[in-house]
Design brief:
Oligomer: homodimer
CATH architecture of the largest domain in chain A: Up-down Bundle
Distance between the termini of chain A: 67 Å
CATH topology of the largest domain in chain A: Glutathione S-transferase Yfyf (Class Pi), Chain A, domain 2
Radius of gyration of chain A: 19 Å
Structural class of chain A: mainly alpha
Chain lengths: 253, 253
């Protein structure tokens, strides 16, 4: 079966978590909104699914995945579905819920990262909410960012099967998503990430391993991987990142 | 088995979605943080679970549910767990994922409702972010609120088994959560809710039916149901609600 992924065509966004799972699974899929409208695809096709009032179980927003007759929405829900089918999640119920719980916590972090540049409304441009964004980003860098990363670092540290995976002893969609979140945070907040006091060596090591997986590595080098940009969820605005670290020489004056 | 629910003791918050499911299930449970610290419970017990570094699968934040040896976090994840055990969700995989997808979309709406009074940081008081809250609340009332409610109203309208339930032909945790969201929105934004142009008659009817369920009705009349208040997720600040509707007589002048 060939999956159809529906997501905005010019950003990684939340769709990227699904893309990474599909790529690692070696699944056949079409990234519909990035295909030609002349061929019945493109954003027009995505909008048709969102607006069609005859759909019994409609998604609220992209990303959504068409799998045969089914349309599945909500990023973490899609990953739970794919994880079970493509050996990217534990098979026991407790492990399955634990992986999903971590994914939902990652989704919370992603929303917070998004809201640093859109604290007022998604319908407004960043330029229309810059003062509020500075305040929200400062609070995010000070509290949420270290708390979330400290938590995820501890998940690797606590894993009784070793520090290689977020869940159990094999690769899961949670590892792929964790890689994506770390990449996004490094793009958006390079200084803040470098200045985090406790660091996150296990997360860094995990990110490196995921990036080196043959299928992920090939994907990242392909045109299918969109670059980070200033329209996505993770955006780099210098004024929202930490200030440069002061040099020791200055402090001792 | 007696469940142990861990959530902040003075608010409905996200814990309320779990409480409603436990109540409707007729499940035996302790609302741990509302019990006495002298008896080893209270907020101190909640904090112990959050801070204990020996827990292999720790929750990031309340609510979390202890079920035997397992600790399950993330509201929607807890509901998926309880739904399967207490006949509050479809039993087929497609139905189970669909119910969960709706719950995750409700969770998104809840986060937006929360952020109307906390657009900058959860660590700050409302009074420290009032101008930003006014802007965010105005955008929420104008765009998100009607879009989300229009979506959920349409879910009832599209249900091929009739308009009585969000999913399928029997009660699920999604119905309970939908009731709670409607109650919260009516408390927080009474004017905006009354002024919504298209209305939401099916959601109103569903809310009435859920409130009248014998177990839910008994719960709502009990002391176990905390009142809405100004510390929770749904808060009523007049300045964040819509302005009074102008009278027709004024318009015709």
């Amino acid at each position: 079966m060939r999956y159809e992924l529906f997501y905005w065509p010019s950003i990684q966004g939340r769709g990227e978590f699904v893309r990474l799972a599909l790529e690692q699974a070696g699944a056949e899929y079409i990234d519909v909104a990035r295909e030609s409208e002349a061929a019945g695809m493109g954003v027009a096709a995505l909008m048709r699914w969102l607006e069609d009032e005859t759909i019994e179980r409609p998604p609220y927003a992209p990303p959504f995945l068409k799998a045969g007759d089914r349309i599945i929405g909500q990023t973490a829900n899609i990953l739970m579905f794919l994880g079970a089918r493509h050996d990217l999640a534990p098979t026991d119920e407790a492990g399955r819920l634990w992986a999903h719980q971590l994914q939902l916590t990652l989704a919370d972090l992603v929303t917070h990262a998004h809201d640093t540049h859109h604290p007022i409304a998604g319908a407004l441009y960043y330029e229309e909410q810059k003062p509020e964004a500075r305040r929200r980003a400062a609070a995010f860098r000070k509290d949420r960012l270290p708390k979330f990363l400290g938590y995820f670092e501890s998940i690797l540290r606590r894993n009784p099967h070793g520090n290689d995976h977020m869940v159990g002893e094999t690769l899961s969609y949670v590892d792929l998503s964790m890689f994506q979140v770390m990449a996004g945070l490094r793009y958006a907040f390079p200084r803040a990430m470098a200045q985090l006091k406790r660091g996150h060596p296990l997360l860094d090591a995990l990110s490196g391993r995921v990036a080196a997986l043959p299928r992920i590595s090939a994907y990242l080098a392909s045109k299918r991987r969109l670059p980070f940009n200033q329209k996505g969820i993770f955006r780099h605005y210098r004024e929202l990142d930490a200030r440069p670290a002061r040099k020791a020489a200055h402090k001792s004056k």
